[in-house]
Design brief:
The complex is a heterodimer.
Chain A lengths: L8 E7 L2 E10 L4 H15 L6 E12 L1 H16 L3 E5 L3 H9 L7 E3 L2 H4 L6
Parallel strand pairs in A: 2-3, 3-4, 4-5
Antiparallel strand pairs in A: 1-2
Helix pairs in contact in A: 1-2
Chain B lengths: L7 H7 L4 E5 L4 E4 L1 H7 L10 H4 L7 H12 L3 E5 L12 E8 L2 E8 L1 H28 L10 E8 L10 E7 L5 E8 L3 H22 L2 H16 L5 E10 L7 E8 L5 E3 L5 E3 L16 E7 L4 E5 L1 H4 L10 H10 L6 H15 L8 E8 L1
Antiparallel strand pairs in B: 1-2, 1-5, 3-4, 4-5, 6-15, 7-8, 8-9, 9-10, 10-13, 11-12, 11-14, 14-15
Helix pairs in contact in B: 5-6, 6-7
Classes of the chains: A alpha/beta, B alpha+beta.
């Protein structure tokens, strides 16, 4: 491909003690395994908390395909079924579109920015 | 004290790699012992023209590149099989020729192992591509049934060189005497694991279609089966439609569509308007109780519906832009009056042209036109 793909980055930091997985670049077949790995670790770290909250900051993601979706759902499944909250920060329209077409915008809580997403207790 | 100038000639004599030099008249001016051994001639080659020693090089690509290097004064490197030029060895050599004052010099080194590795890799890749091709064929209907009063056409393009079996599929089949089912699906990921889920999905849908005869229930059955089989490790989008003649509709047909997180099918009306479904439901394999969208539409004669996978809209141009929903809508809007075959072909061509002919992701297209 001739266009420059943004390098993929997935890092965990904390904001008001809430783990925030910050993701940047294209979330696709190539980067999904790494995303899943990082998100999985963040989720396991939050399992002891109650109520457990993990913020996934997709603000820097320009494109997310079905492999990215698969990683997002796969890594958070057990956490969510145990009552954990997975909050997504979405800015770009391709990511919003992917979440909307797959109906996952109704499964995850979607926020416009990290500040509102990392507020404890607000559903 | 200046370091002593080494004896360059002596160094070349001791090089284990064959090294030769020729003058502007193509006569050998130097060959080192390694080259002499390889050429089987020895010192007496010096002074003789290259083309006399290697008549096989005349007119060959190697010969042409030598002539080019002498002319342009630019070096080149190429892989050679010396046996082609009359030498008694099955080895492969990498040869680098470069201009030197008064002629050309060349050094060669054994590349047999690298060449064998490369051939082995190519063989494995070819075998893998063949497996992908055979699997892929098994996931798509060998031919589409003919539907009275409608035409239908399917297209499938594998991503890249087709080395991996993809997760896109489509299907068209008769639901006993109750009309026709149209299916399009997309399993996340690629390779054998995605293919086995695709196969499971295809046959689960076929079985469920005969049993439940309600589009959303067909997808619910599929969701349960996928969850049971994968434990929620694989997500999957699908759209399922049931088509039948509209009673007293003068050739019009009714299409009932249920959608599970899949891009909405597009409908081209006779007045040129393109319609989609605002709701697309929930992806399969994620939840125990997903909600699927449902729509019933009447297609008049000449109108058509297009199902597609995200490989079409996620096609990317050289500058990174997406093909996108709008461009797809525009393409479909320009398909009025075309046959189902031409509609599917036109969308396929538009998506491929947009990404310079190589699909970044699998593409599946299913077009149905009421005749």
């Amino acid at each position: 491909m001739a266009f420059e793909e943004a390098p993929f980055v997935a890092l965990v930091h904390h904001r008001d003690e809430v783990p925030v997985v910050k993701v940047a670049g294209d979330l696709d077949l190539m980067s999904a395994p790494r995303f899943r790995d990082v998100l999985g670790k963040a989720v396991r770290g939050a399992e002891g908390d109650f109520p457990g909250v993990v913020v996934v900051d997709l603000g820097g993601v320009g494109f997310m395909d079905s492999c990215g979706i698969n990683a997002l759902v796969g890594a958070t499944r057990d956490f969510a079924s145990d009552g954990g909250k997975v909050r997504l920060v979405v800015k770009s329209s391709p990511v919003a579109r992917t979440l909307s077409v797959t109906g996952l915008d109704k499964v995850f809580d979607v926020y416009p920015d990290v500040g509102s997403a990392s507020c404890r207790g607000v559903a | 004290m200046e370091p002593e100038m080494p004896n360059l000639r002596g160094m070349l004599d001791h090089l284990p790699d064959p090294f030769i030099a020729v003058d502007a008249e193509w006569r050998f001016t130097y060959i080192n012992p390694a080259a002499a051994t390889m050429l089987g001639g020895g010192e007496d080659i010096v002074g003789k023209p290259v083309w006399d020693i290697f008549p096989g090089a005349v007119g060959s690509e190697f010969g042409a590149r030598l002539l080019g290097a002498m002319e342009s004064r630019e070096s080149f490197e190429m892989l050679l099989k010396p046996r082609e030029f009359g030498l008694d060895t099955d080895a492969w050599f990498n040869l680098r020729a470069y201009p030197v004052p008064g002629g050309l010099a060349a050094i060669a080194w054994d590349a047999t192992i690298a060449k064998e590795n490369e051939e082995e890799r190519e063989g494995l890749l070819e075998a893998k591509t063949e497996v992908a091709r055979v699997l892929q064929r098994a996931l798509l209907p060998p031919s589409l049934p003919s539907i009275p009063g409608a035409e239908v056409e399917g297209k499938y393009v594998a991503a890249g060189e087709g080395v991996e079996v993809g997760g896109d599929f489509y299907d068209v089949f008769a639901i006993e005497d109750d009309g026709w089912a149209l299916v399009m699906g997309d399993v996340a990921g690629k390779g054998p694991e995605a293919a086995s889920l695709t196969s499971l999905a295809r046959y689960t849908i076929r079985t469920a279609a005969m049993r439940v005869k309600r589009p959303r229930l067909v997808l619910s059955t599929l969701n349960e089966e996928i969850l049971r089989q994968t434990g929620g490790e694989r997500l999957f989008t699908a759209v399922y439609g049931e088509l039948e003649s509209k009673i007293g509709g003068g050739g019009a047909m009714v299409l009932r569509v249920a959608c599970a997180g899949h891009p909405s099918p597009l409908i081209l009306r006779n007045d040129g308007k393109v319609e989609n479904f605002p709701e697309t439901g929930t992806i399969l394999g994620a939840l125990e109780d997903p909600e699927f969208s449902y729509r019933e539409v009447v297609l008049e004669r000449g109108e058509f519906v297009v199902f597609y996978t995200d490989g079409v809209i996620e096609a990317r141009s050289e500058d990174g832009g997406f093909f996108g929903d709008e461009r797809l809508s525009e393409t479909v809007a320009g398909c009025g009056g075309l046959s189902a075959k031409d509609v599917a072909g036109k969308i396929e061509a538009a998506a491929l042209d947009f990404q310079n002919g190589v699909a970044r992701d699998d593409i599946a297209i299913l077009a149905l036109r009421v005749a």
